[in-house]
Structures are given as structure tokens and as C-alpha cells.
Amino acid sequence: MTTRAVAYFAVAAHFWYHFWYASYYDWNYVNIPPTVHPMGITYGRTNKLKFLTYWDALLQSLFFTISFLNEIWGNTEVSPSPRNNSIIRKLKDLILPSLAFPISMFVGLTFWGLYLVDRELVFPKAIDPYFPPWLNHVMHTNIMVFVLLEMYMSFRRYPSRPLGLGILAIFMLCYLVWLHVIYIKTGIWVYPILEKLNLAARVVFFVSLLSLSVVLYIVGEKINQRIWLNRVKFEKTR
Predict the structure, then answer these.
(1) Domain residues for 125?
(2) For a Cys staple, 47 with which of 6, 42, 111, 236, CB 3.0–4.6 Å?
């Protein structure tokens, strides 16, 4: 293996462990009593799965597991049309552009944006004793940092824009439907900010967030082109 491959292998292994451990810890040890805050109310087994943050943590865990396995059995070739393209490499090239990058940036930016405006809208002080600061940063900060590092460290082929955006839209709409199912069953919105909005404002809010996810997909596409365009051109001329 080259020095770059060894370095990336170590980083991918760390990312893989990092997010799986955070997901495990959150599922087993973070329990917010409903008497402390309504965010602790559950519907079935939705105690964690009601949060997009947790969906994203599982997504990043899966993606970096695939990245880790790709270094062992997949294809790490820097080429717009790699030879002997493995299923692992194809999954990696599809998941990061369509889900891992836009969802991680979406979760991080919306969380910290609302937190700076009024933390009670997204992360009330009442839950601080139950949700440690290190886990908060893993779930809402490291997700952005690590996926940006991945963009710079490893080449990937972006899918066609309709395919990539289609996968992203299905993911976001599935979560939006799930959010409303939980509200119908419990009478509680998962995120406190939704309690403050009337129906019209919620519609505008959801449309704005879906639009933001599309923008973040395109931003990821442009970042990838900016980082790897010259490298791909160089590989073509070899």
C-alpha cells in the first residue's frame, strides 16, 4: 500500500469507529425523561430514531464502514471510469454525494444555526445533564469536519444530478413523513421550534429546509469538481 493508502486506511478506520461508538452510546446511555423535557417522549422504539441527527449518525457510520472496506477489497483508483469497479466502490461513490455529504452538512448547519439564535428551539438546556458535550460535538460538529476531510482525501465519481438529488429527496421526504407520524401519535413535535410555528410557517420552514438540502448537494458537487478536476485530467493523460 502507498503512504496515502495507509494514511487513509487509518483515518477511515477511525471515522468508522468514531460514529459507531457515538451511535451505540446515544442509543444505550442517553435517556431523557419525559418529565424533564417532551423531547424524551417516545413512540414505539423511536426514542433515538425520531431525530434526524441519529439517522445521520447511522448514515455516517455506514458510509465510513464502506470507505474502510473499500480500502481493503474495493477500488481506490483516481479515475472518472475506474477499471474493475467493485460494488463497494460503487456504493461509496453513490452514498457520499447523494446522502453522506448533504445530510451531514444539513444537520450541522441547521443545528448550530438554530442553537446560536435560541438553543431552546433545538437543544434545550434541560437536557444538558443527559447529553454529554462530547456526544453533541460528535453528532453536530464532527459530522461536518469528517465528511469534508473525506472529500479532500478520497476521489469519488458523482452520480448524475437527477439520480443524486432523487436519492436525497426520497431520504428527506421519508424523514418528513416520519416526523408527522410521530406528531400524530404523540401530539409532540420532535423539535421544539416546530411548536412555535403555525401551519403556514411550518410549510415555509419545511420547504426552505428541503431547498437547503438541494443547495448543499450542489455545493458538494462543486467542491468535488474543484478538488479533483485537475487530478482526473492528469490521470486521463497518463
Answers:
(1) 3-237
(2) 42
